TrEMBL record:
GO terms for biological process: cilium assembly. InterPro entries: PHTB1_GAE_dom, PHTB1_N_dom, PTHB1, PTHB1_hp_dom, PTHB1_pf_dom, WD40_repeat_dom_sf. This is PTHB1 N-terminal domain-containing protein. It comes from the Eukaryota. Residues 1-381 form the PTHB1 N-terminal domain. Residues 913-922 have a biased composition (Basic and acidic residues). It comes from Anopheles coluzzii. Residues 873-954 are annotated as: Disordered. Residues 680-773 form the PTHB1 hairpin domain. Residues 873-889 have a biased composition (Low complexity). GO terms for cellular component: BBSome; membrane. The lineage of its organism: Eukaryota, Metazoa, Ecdysozoa, Arthropoda, Hexapoda. Residues 456-540 form the PTHB1 GAE domain.
């Protein structure tokens, strides 16, 4: 921000108030309509408006061009310039043309009368070039003279135009020719005798760039799409026969960036300069191709204007450059030295310099919406004044009253019923149906078939019915990281009303690992013609066959979870309960009490999950050596026990109300929680892989830097023609290229391992979430809800932060606040974690220490989950010990029952005792079903008693 500001001297608004102006829309020149006139401001817009202004500067302002004998009065008048009010007489011409105006220029474009000093206007349209003459008609009344625009001639263009330049091509005297640059880079020349011809420059032209004529050397300068400044001689370009003259540029200079604008000035009798405004640099090149200076810009330029103070044949002539930045600052340079800086009132798209009445050398700016202003550089700074401090006493009661009033106003303005109405309207406007079509088929995706040869894929069908006309509609398919999708996004614009579309995508396992969930969610976001945006969501369960296949059950496993179902599932004589729950894996009529499932991909390494059903069929055990494999199987088992999923088929989760009722009647309780050590090990593996990827990325950056250094040295040796040194450089290049390729391959492999670690960690977190959600006496409240919500998120690492860095504040909050905290641990440990503040810091030189965040997250998460597990285990142990049976894994024995007990008689006695004690022992809270289940479990296990527990007889 500059200390000074550009003072407004005159301003107006062009007729078109839309953003229809660019850097070619402003032209400042003396049209020589009358004797002794000043410069006129010609403005053309893309809407076709052509306006010519001549600011009068008022009637009482002195002419600063005239010399004043009294120096003091002259200085006083110069310092007291005030802003002039726009007058109607300032408008010379205002006309609406039938075509958009791309550029305006003035010159001697006719040969009628060489003694006529008047200039003509050349207006460039997209497909036409028109030459106009300004004619002044004497007024017969008090309103004065007026000006008309007379068309002299026009030229039709065969291709869309981009820019226009003029000059005395070929060194002619007293005449100006025109050159139009088309969008494809070709040039069209127009001479006054009606001769026109088209030429194409030597190099390829895909992006048009500014084109200017250099009168001193009779050449054209432009910037090629390869960011090279090229200079072409007019005689070479105008030559029709290619065999006579060459069409290559006479010199070329690489500027390394796109040129925003380009201007040409003659600064002496023997030299002209070309000033180029790039995206990051300001360059000045002589007409012979030599660089005079390069100015590195620390801001983003928008437009610029260059001019020469004094006459070029005088030794005191100076080249001045005025550059406007995107923040609205005007920076004035003398060659490459900045001499002034001021702040503009708005950010213009075009800037010029004009000599107007009463203010020579005025700055003319044109805004994107047609705000035309004439100003000058102010010499008086506008200092910022600190406002007076409000020393009134702070009244808590008054502030609290104001806060209550604001909350009451917000509450009155928000209607909670609008959400339900909006959701119902969204369901009526767009109907979204998602379903799995047919059975899984062998996968045909190329990136999967080589890695997972035996994988299958299923077809997901999405049907959208649109009632009103929509501006935009987008469909997104969201799945787990381990699930691939043939196309996950569809975008449509201007959707017709009452239309129906169906889209089919293929889902398949993408990596040799089990996903945390097999739910595929389809999001439909649409925007109506009124600009209202709504989002719909539908979910569907993928078939289990895509990810699991049967295997040989195992007797022992490291991790075990016990599920209890109330009421127990109905048994059929045709087969076991597992055969009814998983008919796609168990043969028809099978009576096995155990079922093992392993991943379809990578199942040969022994990883499996075993499901064992107890004799009473109200208890199930899920066991495995890896926690990451248990989440998908456990979720599928719970869903099929509660009836939320059709057996053997994948349907929408909440498809019918009957299944919701059945799911609410069936209670599935998980006894116990997996050990937190497995989660901590997975977090540590993820952290180690993340650090390895970071280290490999740093190695790749160093290797590529060395590669660039060797390439530069190779170019230098090549220019010096030092052939002996080329052998050493070539050897270094080959070795460095091999090192870069090796590091790239290592990064690719390590990122794949990191992705597998993320999937495994997500599955373990999902497993803990299922265990906590179905625990018998899990702690309630919003803090426990926050904890379970934390365990459902997918593990993703951003480029700036790892998963540990993002989750650490949440776990720290749950660990130190709420009912899950432990006051004794707060006094023993350090609550502020000094290691985090001293180790896990980021500076310009030292990167973030990932291990510090991971260690803090592991420690706090272990203590937090340990407290929750202790509460769950304590409640389960208390209920089990109260029954007096010590029910354990004995119910899963596959041995015949002892004959000492009469099962039918005992069940009748148990039902009678339960009916007598039911009213007395019925709890008042919502845990009635759980207590009934505890009593049923206790009584059902009393008739089974063994001296020694044995392994599963599988």
């Amino acid at each position: 921000m500059s200390l000074f500001k550009v003072r407004n001297w005159w301003k107006t608004q062009c007729p078109t108030i839309e953003p229809a102006y660019d850097s070619f829309s402003l032209h400042c020149a003396r049209l020589c309509i009358e004797e002794g006139e000043k410069d006129s401001l010609v403005v053309g817009s893309h809407s076709g408006q052509l306006c010519i202004y001549r600011p009068s500067g008022g009637t009482n302002l002195p002419d600063l061009d005239a010399e004043d004998d009294e120096q003091g009065s002259a200085n006083g008048s110069a310092n007291e310039l005030a802003e002039n009010v726009f007058q109607h007489a300032d408008v010379i011409l205002e006309v609406q043309l039938p075509l958009p105006v791309l550029g305006v220029s003035s010159g001697k474009f006719t040969t009628t009368n060489k003694t006529d000093p008047r200039l003509q206007l050349a207006v460039l349209h997209p497909m036409k070039l028109c030459i106009y003459q300004l004619v002044t008609v004497d007024g017969l009344a008090d309103h004065g003279d007026h000006t008309r625009l007379v068309t002299l001639y026009d030229h039709a263009l065969s291709k869309p135009a981009f820019s226009l330049c003029h000059g005395p091509f070929g060194g002619v005297k007293g005449r100006d020719f025109l050159c139009v640059q088309h969008m494809d880079g070709s040039l069209r020349f127009f001479e006054q005798d009606g001769i026109s011809y088209e030429r194409t420059l030597a190099t390829d032209r895909f992006i048009p760039a500014p084109l200017h004529y250099v009168p001193r050397v009779d050449c054209f300068v432009t910037v090629a799409p390869s960011w090279v400044l090229e200079c072409y001689r007019y005689q070479d370009v105008a030559e029709a026969l290619e065999t006579l003259r060459r069409h290559d540029p006479i010199w070329a200079l690489c500027i390394g960036e796109y040129a925003l604008d380009l201007q040409v000035h003659q600064i002496s009798n023997t030299e002209s300069v070309i000033v180029i405004l790039g995206e990051n640099n300001l360059l000045c090149v002589s007409d012979t191709g030599k660089v005079r200076f390069i100015k590195k810009l620390d801001y983003s330029p928008v437009c610029f204007h260059s001019f020469v103070t004094g006459w070029y044949w005088e030794p005191g002539a100076r080249l001045m450059l005025a550059v406007v930045s995107e923040s609205g600052s005007l920076l004035l340079y003398e060659s490459d030295q900045i001499i002034w800086s001021a702040q503009l009132g708005h950010v213009p798209v075009a800037i010029g310099r004009a000599n107007v009445a009463g203010l020579p050398g005025a700055l003319v700016t044109l805004g994107p919406t047609g705000a035309l202003a004439v100003g000058y550089l102010g010499s008086e700074p506008q200092l910022f004044r600190v406002p007076a401090l409000n020393l009134a006493p702070f009244e808590i009661a008054r502030c609290q009253k104001e806060l209550l009033e604001l909350e009451r106003e917000i509450r009155a303005g928000v209607d909670p019923s609008d959400a339900s109405i909006a959701n119902a309207a969204a369901e009526r406007d767009v109907q979204l149906e998602v379903a799995i079509q047919g059975e899984p088929v062998p996968c045909t995706e190329q990136q999967v078939t080589g890695l997972l040869s035996s994988s299958e894929m299923c077809q997901l069908s999405v049907t959208v019915r649109v009632e009103p006309k929509l501006e935009m509609l987008q469909l997104t398919v969201a799945t787990d990281q381990a699930i691939g999708c043939s196309k996950d996004a569809f975008l449509f614009r201007d959707v017709a009303a009452h239309s129906t579309e169906r889209f089919d995508v293929w889902l398949y396992p993408a990596v040799p690992s089990l996903p945390a969930s097999r739910t595929a969610t389809v999001y439909c976001s649409y925007t109506s013609k009124q600009g209202i945006t709504r989002v719909l969501e539908r979910s569907v369960l993928l078939p289990v066959r895509l990810f699991l296949k049967p295997a040989q059950p195992s007797k022992e496993a490291q991790h075990k979870l016990t599920l209890t179902v109330v009421p127990p599932p109905a048994q059929h004589t045709a087969g076991s309960v597992l055969g009814r729950l998983f008919p796609e894996f168990a043969p028809e009529g099978s009576s096995a009490s155990a079922l093992a499932l392993q991943p379809v991909a990578g199942g040969g390494d022994g990883r499996k999950v075993t499901i064992v059903a107890a004799k009473s069929t109200n208890r199930f055990r899920v066991q495995s050596d890896e926690l990451g494999l248990m989440a998908l199987v456990l979720e599928c088992l719970i869903g099929r026990l509660q009836g939320r999923e059709s057996v053997g088929h994948a349907t929408e989760q909440d498809e019918a109300a009957g299944r919701k009722d059945h799911s609410s009647r069936v209670q599935v309780t998980i006894g116990g929680v997996p050990s937190v050590s497995g989660l901590i090990r997975s977090l540590q593996v993820h952290c180690d892989l993340r650090k390895a990827v970071k280290q490999l990325e740093n190695d790749l950056e160093i290797a590529t830097g060395q590669m660039r250094l060797f390439e530069r040295r190779f170019v230098v040796k090549l220019q010096e023609r030092s052939l002996r040194a080329l052998d050493g450089i070539l050897m270094l290049l080959k070795r460095n290229h091999t090192a870069v390729a090796k590091v790239c391959l290592q990064i690719k492999t390590m990122r794949q391992k990191l992705k597998l670690a993320q999937i495994d960690l997500t599955a373990i977190l999902r497993l803990f979430h299922l265990c906590y959600s179905h625990a018998a006496n899990a702690p309630g409240g919003k803090y426990f809800e926050h904890l379970t919500a934390l365990l459902t998120h997918s593990v993703l690492d951003s480029t700036e932060q790892s998963y540990e860095e993002m989750m650490l504040p949440v776990v720290r909050f749950l660990h130190q606040t709420g009912p899950l905290k432990n006051s004794t641990e707060q006094s023993e440990g350090t609550p502020f974690d000094e290691e985090f503040f001293y180790t896990a810091k980021q500076t310009d030189r030292d990167p973030v220490d990932l291990s510090a965040h991971s260690q803090l997250l592991q420690g706090q998460l272990q203590r937090l989950l340990g407290r929750v597990n202790d509460r769950i285990t304590t409640g389960t142990t208390a209920r089990t010990s109260g029954s007096g049976s010590g029910r354990n894994s004995v119910d899963f024995e596959d041995q015949p029952l002892p004959e000492a007990h009469n099962e039918e008689a005992e069940e009748e006695e148990e039902e009678n005792e339960k009916g007598q004690n039911e009213e007395a022992n019925r709890p008042t809270d919502g845990s009635a079903g759980v207590e009934e289940f505890a009593q049923l479990s206790a009584t059902a296990s009393e008739w089974v008693n063994y001296e020694k527990m044995s392994d599963l007889p599988l």
